Amino acid sequence: MVKITIMGASGTIGKNVAFTLAKEDVIDEIVMYSRESSHARVTGEIMDMYDALAAEDIDSVLTPSCNVEDIAGSKVVLITSGVPRKDGYTRLDLAEPNSKIIKQYAQNIAEYAPDAIILIVTNPVDVMTSIALEYSGFDKKRVIGLGNHLDSLRLKTILAKHFNINSGEIHTRVIGEHGDHMVPLLSSTTIGGIPLNYFAHYTDLDVGELVNRLKNAGGNIISKKGATEYGPSYAISNLISTIVNDSRKILTVSTYLEGEVEGVYDVSLGVPVILCRGGIQRIVPVRMNDYERSEFFEAARTVKKCTYAVRDYLNESL
Ligand code: NAP
């Protein structure tokens, strides 16, 4: 019996992930956990989803819940809960209220679903991954964050369009922060196994413009349609599907580092890992050029500073 819980289920990402995962054969039940104020909304979403699933002869079980005990037995608990961003909010303005939610939910998971893998989506995701790790007390292989996997999919799309090649042929990766200090690993990007710079039209590639487009991809979507939904939801489904199917794919997730990559420690950042039924099997070595390495260090400095500020905030607001 494979059970998944989504916390923050009434939100854009939460409900989209539920609908995507409902089509996954190996998952038996999805608990859509929400605050009481969102319960009616979640119940309505489920009724609507059942109608759509019936059209495809899919008999999934979707359970609305405001009772945290219902998360018991979950293989993966996804947290998408977060306060909405307001105009003029800094990263820390968002990090502080969200860290309180993550702290509480991580403690709930530790109590009611102690064997689960926690997948954090709430932003700033790298900081929230460290907070979830700390307050769940879980082994770090069972606490991961989504961020750079989505950025990597976005980079794949940009390159596929530029080279006019099927996106399946593009092997690329973005590491570091899910934010301004993301690091696209162009030096090790290949197309069909061939290094990027061997390709015709490589010289037409404006790398500065590409990096800007990548960093602004989420904001650009939000400015046009108010939220990102399909991209993050499919990226999350990739991660959960890899875990429950024990696929051992190499995907980029935020994980707490203790020196495994370039000696960086006490901060969660996106790095490639082998993902399996138990969570992170291991971090995969990364090859960077000097520029990429210095950007990775900058990502570590920025995220660490924010993480320390949030830790102080949580300690002070005890
Ligand atoms: P959303 O539609 O605003 O949903 C957020 C959900 O959070 C709400 O539906 C609510 O769920 C819960 N929530 C709101 N205020 C809360 C509070 N004070 N206490 C507890 N729960 C609260 O947002 P979204 O578009 O789904 O995005 C969710 C989060 O994911 C955001 O932090 C966003 O920045 C982040 N995100 C991350 C990535 C990534 O790659 N890491 C990509 C996209 C978005 P309930 O009422 O159902 O509990």
Describe the structure.
With 318 residues, the protein is α/β, with parallel strands linked by helices. Helix content is 43%, strand content 20%. It is built from 9 helices and 14 strands. The strands form 4 sheets. Strands 3-2-1-4-5-6 form a 6-stranded parallel β-sheet, sandwiched between helices. A 3-stranded antiparallel β-sheet has the order 7-10-11. Helix 5 crosses helix 8. Bound molecules: NADP nicotinamide-adenine-dinucleotide phosphate. NADP nicotinamide-adenine-dinucleotide phosphate is lined by residues 8-14, 34-35, 38, 80-84, 101, 121-123, 125, 146-147, 150, 178, 227-228, 232. NADP nicotinamide-adenine-dinucleotide phosphate binds next to helix 1.
Proportion in helices: 40-55%
In this entry the ligands are:
NADP nicotinamide-adenine-dinucleotide phosphate
What would the principal axes of the Cα set say about the shape?
Answer: globular
- Helix/strand/pairing class, anyone? alpha/beta
C-alpha Rg (nearest Å): 19 Å
Total number of beta strands: 14
Task: Give the SSE order as H and E letters.
Answer: EHEHEEHEHEHEEEEEHHHEEEH
Mean pLDDT, nearest integer? 95
Largest sheet features: 6 strands, parallel
Strand content of the residues, in percent?
Answer: 15-25%
State the separation between the terminal residues, measured CA to CA: 38 Å
Order of strands across the biggest sheet? 3-2-1-4-5-6
Provide a brief overview of the structure.
With 318 residues, the protein is of the alpha/beta class. Helix content is 43%, strand content 20%.
